[in-house]
Amino acid sequence: MLTHNLGYPRIGSKRELKRASEQFWAGKISKDELIRNARQIRRQNWQTQAEAGIELIPSNDFSFYDHVLDTALLVGAIPDRYHALIDGKSNRELDIFFAMARGVQKDGIDIKAMEMTKWFDTNYHYIVPEFVKNQRFQRYSDKIIVEFEDAKQMGIVTKPVLVGPVSFLLLGKEKEAGFSRISLLDNLLTVYIEVLEDLALRGATWVQLDEPCLTLDLTEDEQIVFQQAYAKIRKAVPELKLLVATYFECSGENIHVSTTLPIDCLHVDLVRCPSQLGDILENTDFIKSDKILSLGVVDGRNIWKNDYTKSLGLIQKAVDALGEDRVMIAPSCSLLHSPCDLDLEKNEEVLSPEIKNWMAFAKQKLDEVVILSKLADPKTFKDFARQLTDNHLAIESRRSSKLIHKSEVKNRVSAIKEKDFDRESTFSIRQEIQLEALKLPLFPTTTIGSFPQTDEVRQLRANLKKGELSQADYDAKIAEAIEKSITWQEEIGIDVLVHGEFERNDMVEYFGEQLSGYVFTQNGWVQSYGSRCVKPPVIYGDVERPNPMTVKWSGYAQSKTDKLMKGMLTGPVTILQWSFVRDDQPRQTTAYQIALAIRDEVTDLEKAGIKVIQIDEPAIREGLPLRKADWANYLDWAVKAFRLSAAGVRNETQIHTHMCYSEFNDIIQHIAAMDADVITIETSRSQMELLDAFADFKYPNEIGPGVYDIHSPRVPSIDEIVFLLEKALNVIPARNLWVNPDCGLKTRHWAETEAALKNMIAATEKIREAA
Ligand code: GLN
Ligand code: ZN
C-alpha cells in the first residue's frame, strides 16, 4: 500500500514566499534571490514529506503564483499582448509569468493581467488560461523539469504534478468567437506528451495529472474527450505510470469515465464523497482491471484530525476488494488548502491544548497518511496501535467536549419555527411603513460600511494588542475617528450614514472574536492568490453570542447624529464561508447557529435605536456547490439562514444586505427570497449590466447598484455617475433606487474617498432634479 501526497503548501510555513515575492516586486531583492528563496521552500517541503515517510512525493506543486498559470507557461499558452516581453530577450520567463499574473506598468509598457477566478469551491484563485482559434501550443517553460531534477539531487525521485490537459482546457476561456477550446486538445497533447516523455527519460516513474473537472457536470462530448486524451497519452508513454487525480466532489455520472481511463491509478476524494468508494467497487468494472485506487481519506480542506477508525473502514473495504497492492493512501486533495504546521501554534492562550489536540495542519496530515497505511497493514499494525488509541481518545474528547456542545444552542436551533424566517409583513407593506418612518428622499444615498483603514487606525489596533495602548485610549481614538467621519458625512449630505468600521480588523474575524465556539490561529495561513494569504478563523463548537457585538459603537455613532445611522453586520453564510468549519455537523446547522446569534444582534441594535441595519452577505454565491443538482438544497438553507438573522425586527426597521463579485442571473429568485428591504450590489464594472437580472425578474425590493468601482483610486466624474444612474433608472423603478459605491471603502485613501463621494452626491442631486 503506497502513500502519496497530491501537493504541499507552497507559501512556506512562515509565509516566506509571500515576503520574498513582495520584496522582488518592490525591487528590493533580485530575481536570483527570489529564486533561491523559492528553491529553499521547495527543498524544505520535500524534506518534510520524506521525513514523514510519504513514498510518492509531488514536485511541480510549487508555484511562484499559481499552478494553472505554470501550466499555461509550460505549454506556451501566452496571450499575444505579452509577446513584446519575450521578443529577443532571454531569461524573461519569470517576468512574463508575473506580467500574466499581475500585469505590468513600467518603462512605457502597460499590459493588463489575465483574469483570475476561484478554484472550484475553494478560496484559492487561479489565473484563467486564454485560448484563441488555431492556437498552437509549444513547450515554453522548463519549470517541471527543473524541479524534478532538483529533487533528484536530494535523492528523491518525485511524482511530478500537472494540471491534466482536459481540465486545463475546460478551466480556460475562449478569447475569440467561432471555436471551442476543446478543439485544441490534439495540439495541446503533443506538448504534454513531449513533457511526459522527457520526464520518463529522466527517470520519473509516476506522474500525477489533476483532472478535478471530472467531478463537475460534464456533457457527453466532454466525457468522450477525457477518454480520447488519455488513450493518446497512454499510447505515447507506456512506460510512465499515470495517476489521474479527481477531488472536491463525487464523480457522479463521470464515474464511468474516470474508472475506465487507460491509466495506472485513479485518485478519489473520499472526504467530500465517501460513497463513491462503494460506487466504484460495486457499480463499475474497476475491480476487474489492474488499476490502483488512491483513497483520499485525509481532509485537505480543513484543519481537523483524521478519524482513523473511520478511514480504516474505508481502506479495509478497498483492500478487501482490490488487494493491498492496488490501494494507495493520500490526502483528499492537494494540501495547498491547509495551513502549514500546527506545531507552530505555541501560544496556549490563543489555542488551548484541548482544542489543538483535535487539529491537524498539512505537516500533521502527512503523518496521518503514513500512520493510516501502517495501521491498515497487519504486519505493522501492532507497532502503531498506540497512535490508534491516541487518535481514538482525541476524537472521543472532541465528540463529547463541553467546550463544543451546548444544549441551549442545539435546543434553540431545533426549536426554530417557520414563522421565524419571516418578517412581520410582506415587503410592499414594509416599504410603505418605512417610507413614513424613515423619511428618506428619493434616491437615498449611503455607503457600504467601511471608511479608509489608514495606517494610523491599524497601528492603534496593533498597539492595543501589544499592550502599548490601553483599551480606554484605544476606544477614545476609535470614537474620535467615528465622530470625524460622521461630521464629514453630514457635511457632504449623505442620507444614511455609517460609522466607518474603524474598530474592525476584518469583517469575519471581528465577529468570530466575539462569538463563542470560535478559535483563532497565529500561523494558520492559506494561499488565496499570489502572495495573498488568508487566516480563516476556526469554528470548533456551538456558536453563541455571549454579549452584544456592535451595539456599543453603532449606538455611539447614532447618538452623534440626527441622521439615520446604519448598523453593520456580517451575515451567517459569509461568516460560515470564510471560516474553517466543523466537520461534525452539517454546514446548515452551523449556519443556523450563527444566524441566531446575528438575529439577537439585529434585535439589540433595533432596541438601541438603530433603524437601518445592513447584514452583509458577499459570500452567498461562492458557497454554491459544484454540481447544479445540489444548488437548490444549499440555496434553500443559505437564504433561510439570512432570513432567520434578519426577521426578528419590526416593519419599520429597514434591513439591507450587500453582495459583491456576484453574477445574479441564475440565482436571482433566491436573492429575492432573502427579502432584504434594500440590497446593495457591485455593478459599476459591468456598467450596470448586472442589473438586467433584477429587471428581468421584476425584483420587487429596493436596490443600490454600485455607481463606482472602489477597487481603484480613480475618482469617478459626476457625469459618469449620472450616466450609470440613468441606465439603472431604465430598468429599476425610481422609488426603489439607492445610490452608493460598489463596496466598502476600507482599502481606499481619504482624499479619493472624499472626492468620489462628493461627486456621487452631486450626481444624485442632478437626477433628483430631473425626476
Ligand atoms: N461592510 C463591509 C465593508 O464595507 C462589506 C465588505 C464586503 O462586502 N466585502 O467593508
Ligand atoms: Zn462588497
Task: Compile the SSE list and pairings.
Blueprint: E1 2-3, H1 16-25, H2 31-52, E2 58-59, H3 67-74, H4 83-86, H5 93-102, E3 104-106, E4 109-111, E5 116-118, E6 125-127, E7 130-131, H6 143-153, E8 159-163, H7 165-171, E9 173-174, H8 185-201, E10 206-210, H9 220-236, E11 241-245, H10 255-258, E12 265-269, H11 275-283, E13 292-298, H12 308-322, E14 327-331, H13 353-356, H14 362-375, H15 381-400, H16 407-414, H17 427-438, H18 455-466, H19 471-492, E15 496-497, H20 509-512, E16 516-519, E17 526-529, E18 532-534, E19 538-544, H21 551-559, E20 564-570, H22 572-577, H23 587-607, E21 612-616, H24 631-646, E22 654-659, H25 668-673, E23 678-681, H26 691-697, E24 702-705, H27 718-731, H28 750-770
Parallel strand pairs: 1-14, 2-8, 7-9, 8-10, 10-11, 11-12, 12-13, 13-14, 15-20, 20-21, 21-22, 22-23, 23-24
Antiparallel strand pairs: 3-4, 5-6, 16-19, 17-18
The structure holds glutamine and zinc ion.
Key attributes of the depicted protein:
alpha/beta, eight-stranded parallel sheet, six-stranded parallel sheet, binds glutamine, binds zinc ion, repeat, zinc ion binding, amino-acid biosynthesis, EC 2.1.1.14, methionine biosynthesis
